[in-house]
Structure formats: structure tokens, C-alpha cells
């Protein structure tokens, strides 16, 4: 009985928010932009709930989506909330285009989880129903001042080997936030992979001077014969 009452209350609140975008803070009608890697226009299913800027959405609005479509079990690839991980993330991102954790989960699903999962192990869970690049483009168009979303775009492009595009996005992040140590660090890794070791040293010095803790970039540069100065090494420990 209590479960039915709770469900009815949730449905009622969803309808109120959906029909009152000015009160809920939603930007009605905000769809997809740009094209995927194959040149196909980005498209996605539209919902009446949202979209909302995740940074300013109320905790109640967040809970309505996350408690049913972005639980810890789904986010950590333990069990999807509705049969398919990408479907959970898509619903969450349709409501909150700049939901950083959902974007990262979508990136991880495409680039880490699916390539390494046994195809016969609950295959329905791991079907990629979303185009990650399209959701990232939509997020950046929806919240162009969200530097963390820009960072995720750069990270994804680097993960899929589109290094020139990734570099542009990392530099965009750095321009917006000159203290973004992670952007310097990841850009340094990208430059090492591109063979631009002198540039990588310059970027690495900046990353570590800003206190970035991981030593991987330093280690890669040393292995390539480009050791960092001792003061920079100390900051990287």
C-alpha cells in the first residue's frame, strides 16, 4: 500500500514539474546538436521531464531521476535499473544534459566496460543504445560554461584516439580555468602519445606545479628520456 502511494506521489510530482517548466527551471525543447563520428545528425528521444541544469537543479528534482535511473548499482555497472545500462544513462542525461557522473558512466561503458565484457554475459545489459559523442555535444551546447563537461569531452576524444580534437578541448578547459591541473596532466599524456615530448614536459611542469598527484606522466616522460626537474618530481610524489 505504501509503495503504491509513494509511486502515485512521484508520478504526480513528475507531472507537475513537466507541466511547469518555469517553476522547475527546465529548458523545454532543448534537443541534440551536431553530428556523430560518421557524419550522421545526432538525434535522441525527447522526454517531457527537463532538461535541467544539474548544477542548479533542486535535490528533489535530482532524486526523482537518480533514484530510479541512476542508482549506485547502475552507475557502477553492477545491475542496470531498467535492463540496460546505456538506457539508464540516456534517461538521466535527457533530464540533466550536464550530469557529469552520467556522462562519465556513458564514456566508461563504451570505452572500458563493453570492450572487456563477455558477449554472452547478460548481453542485453551491455548493448550501446546511446552515441556518447552526441550526448557530450548536447551537454556542451546546453551548458557551455560548465568546464567539467568540457573536460569530459576532451577525455572521451582522447580515449577514442581523436587526439587533435581532444587537445583543442583540453586547451579550451585550460583557457577557462588556468588552474585545471587535471587538464594539464591529461594534455601531457596526450602529447607524450603524440610524440611531442618537449611540449609534454612544459605541460607536465604546470600540472605538477598546480599539485596534480599522479606520477604517471612523470614516469612516462622519464621512460622516454625526458626527466622532469627535481623540484617538479617532488611535487609529483
What does this structure look like?
The chain has 237 residues and is mainly alpha-helical. The protein folds into two domains: 1-39 and 50-144, no CATH class; 147-237, Tetratricopeptide repeat domain (Serine Threonine Protein Phosphatase 5, Tetratricopeptide repeat, Alpha Horseshoe). Helices cover 61% and strands 0% of the residues. It contains 13 helices and no strands. It has helices spanning 2-19, 21-24, 59-69, 72-75, 85-95, 100-116, 132-142, 147-159, 163-176, 181-193, 197-209, 216-223, 230-236. The radius of gyration is 20 Å and the shape is globular. The model is unreliable at 2-6 and 8-24 (pLDDT under 50).
Topology:
Blueprint: H1 2-19, H2 21-24, H3 59-69, H4 72-75, H5 85-95, H6 100-116, H7 132-142, H8 147-159, H9 163-176, H10 181-193, H11 197-209, H12 216-223, H13 230-236
Helix pairs in contact: 5-6, 6-8, 7-8, 8-9, 9-10, 10-11, 10-12
Q: Which key features would you list for this structure?
A:
mainly alpha, 13 helices, 61% helix, 0% strand, globular, disordered N terminus
Give a brief outline of the structure:
This protein has 237 residues and is mostly helical. The chain contains 13 helices and no strands. It is globular and about 55 Å long.
Averaged pLDDT, please? 87
H and E order = HHHHHHHHHHHHH
Q: Major sheet: size, sense and barrel closure?
A: none
Shape type? globular
Number of strands: 0
Number of domains: 2
Strand fraction: under 5%
How much helix is in the residues? 55-70%
